[in-house]
Amino acid sequence: MSRLRVDPERSDELVAAFQRRAGLVENHDGFIDLQVWRSDRDPAEVLMVSRWRDREAFKAYMKSNDHRVSHGRIDPSLKAAIQLERLEHLHTYEVMVE
């Protein structure tokens, strides 16, 4: 989970950038899904939550050319406006019921 902070007036732009993403991550081994959440109390806070089979699959994607291409598509002014507050790995939880 990536906890992002962006100026509130650019929050919609950040969400739209995720909606227009290249979709390259979907083809990577171990990828399960990706969701983008925005706080209803603080539109400057956006969470990007991706789920992976295991940490090794996530790390392989993070080192891939597809990851570089995906991030290279972000408008430079938007990229400069985004602050990564925290990157959290929820590796101690397992889905028990869906």
Brief digest:
It contains four helices and four strands, in the order βαββαααβ. By secondary structure, it is α+β, with helices and mostly antiparallel strands. The chain has one domain: Alpha-Beta Plaits, CATH 3.30.70.100.
Shape: globular
- How would you sum up the major sheet? 4 strands, antiparallel
Helix amount: 25-40%
What's the CATH topology name? Alpha-Beta Plaits
Explain this structure.
The chain has 98 residues and is of the alpha+beta class. The chain has one domain (2-87): Alpha-Beta Plaits. Helices cover 32% and strands 26% of the residues. It has helices at residues 11-19, 55-62, 65-72, 76-81, and strands spanning 2-5, 31-38, 45-52, 83-87. The radius of gyration is 14 Å and the shape is globular. The two termini are 20 Å apart. The relative contact order is 0.27.
SSE blueprint and pairings:
Layout: E1 2-5, H1 11-19, E2 31-38, E3 45-52, H2 55-62, H3 65-72, H4 76-81, E4 83-87
Antiparallel strand pairs: 1-3, 1-4, 2-3
Q: What characteristics describe this protein?
A:
alpha+beta, Alpha-Beta Plaits, 4-stranded antiparallel sheet
